[in-house]
Write a structure and sequence with these properties.
The protein has 6 helices and no strands. With about 120 residues, the chain is an all-alpha fold. α1 packs across α2 and α5 runs antiparallel to α6. The two termini are about 20 Å apart.
Length: about 120
């Protein structure tokens, strides 16, 4: 049996999907801003440095640290980042439909659907 999907795991996955496009500078302005805001909030919670954050969550130990930092937050905080992540997923979806990103539309839709079911 696999591990339960959590809001922290979904957010880290979403940030990882957006990270490469952000590094390459191909996100639209709105998507870039949404990605940056979500990343900044999670960085503050995980006591990470923004300059190393992109590499930090590509390692398993880094991902686990960030997931844990999200999971221990009060419910109101998790609701806030869930909403931010859902908005980012929608903006990424729009970028994908414009043909500007190499991210799976199906994967984005799965993440967004899962985000909407978690509290």
């Amino acid at each position: 049996m696999g591990r339960e999907t959590t809001i922290g795991m979904l957010i880290v996955t979403l940030l990882a999907l957006a990270s490469e496009a952000a590094k390459r500078g191909i996100l639209t302005e709105g998507t870039r801003l949404a990605y940056g805001r979500l990343k900044e909030k999670i960085v503050a919670w995980s006591d990470s440095d923004t300059s190393i954050f992109d590499e930090f969550y590509t390692r398993e130990s880094g991902r686990r640290h960030i997931v844990d930092a999200i999971e221990v937050r009060p419910s109101d905080d998790r609701v806030t980042v869930r909403s931010m992540a859902s908005a980012l997923a929608e903006l990424l979806r729009q970028d994908v439909l414009r043909g500007s990103l190499g991210i799976s539309l199906r994967r984005l839709e799965e993440i967004d659907a899962q985000l909407k079911t978690l509290a």
